[in-house]
């Protein structure tokens, strides 16, 4: 996916990069990180959200991608312990105005908390950015939902909607990325797209979706894929979506992660004059 609209469009990516574990054998992080980093370089997102990133993986990305800065915290202690749902943004394009993380639980301000039928702790990280090209201020939220708890996913979607209203209000553009462990047929997905604010960028893209619908791939190229669970949502009153794709970059045998990244090129409907 090449940019179709010059410097004013935003290329947004969501990517579950798979946590670092020796159990992955030939697909463990140390053996695949350069492929994943090169994918990000080549696809050149302006901002991207990652899921399942452990602290060493965050540092590897930051060190290899100096054109970006990140915000995020570990899900266990709100500092550096556990997986991050971090957001990376281009420092030559965006000014970071504010940031935060809340936990997908009944006590969203308490680090490490979980609730409902969730198997583990999950978070949503957000940043408030000013775009130096368009002078627009917007928010990017990035989340990772529980993989087993259906009630947890539904309540997490409801929580994100209530938190965005509390943090953002109703007039500021929002981008929401993540691994939601939820297909378009799920209750949690429908909670987002029936709220009259957010739309799935895939559904409103001006160009037809490119690539497979599935985003859970396993590492092996050619193996049957799983569901479409990674999504990019936007406030459709603020953004138009120029194109949308699920990326299948690989070395011919293996993908850089067990999820495929999703990339959308979007554009503010209103450009503010400087």
TrEMBL record:
Pfam families associated with the record: Exo_endo_phos
Highest taxon listed in the record's lineage: Eukaryota
CDD domains linked to this entry: EEP-1 (cd09083)
Annotated ranges, domain Endonuclease/exonuclease/phosphatase: 13-259
Gene Ontology MF: a single term: 3'-5'-RNA exonuclease activity
Record protein name field: Endonuclease/exonuclease/phosphatase domain-containing protein
Annotated source species: Adineta ricciae
């Amino acid at each position: 996916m090449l940019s179709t609209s010059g410097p004013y469009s935003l290329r947004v990516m969501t990517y579950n990069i798979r946590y670092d574990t020796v159990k992955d054998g030939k697909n463990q992080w140390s053996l695949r990180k350069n492929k994943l980093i090169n994918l990000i370089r080549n696809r050149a997102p302006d901002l991207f959200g990652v899921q399942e990133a452990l602290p060493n993986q965050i540092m590897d990305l930051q060190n290899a991608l100096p054109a970006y800065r990140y915000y995020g915290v570990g899900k266990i202690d709100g500092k550096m312990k556990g997986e991050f749902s971090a957001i990376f943004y281009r420092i030559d394009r965006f000014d970071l105005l504010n940031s935060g993380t809340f936990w997908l639980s009944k006590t969203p301000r308490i680090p490490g908390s979980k609730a409902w039928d969730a198997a583990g702790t999950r978070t949503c990280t957000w940043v408030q950015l000013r775009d130096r090209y368009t002078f627009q201020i917007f928010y990017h939220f990035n989340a990772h939902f529980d993989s087993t708890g259906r009630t947890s996913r539904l309540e997490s979607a409801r929580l994100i909607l209530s938190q965005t209203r509390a943090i953002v209000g109703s007039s500021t553009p929002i981008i929401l990325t993540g691994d939601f462990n939820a297909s378009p047929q799920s209750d949690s997905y429908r909670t987002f797209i029936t709220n009259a604010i957010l739309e799935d960028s895939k559904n409103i893209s001006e160009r037809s979706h490119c690539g497979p619908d599935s985003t859970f791939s396993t590492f092996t190229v050619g193996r049957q894929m799983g569901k479409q669970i990674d999504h990019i949502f936007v406030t459709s009153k603020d953004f138009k979506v120029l194109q949308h794709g699920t990326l299948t970059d690989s070395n011919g045998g293996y993908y850089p992660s067990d999820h495929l990244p999703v990339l959308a090129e979007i554009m503010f409907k209103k450009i503010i004059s400087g």
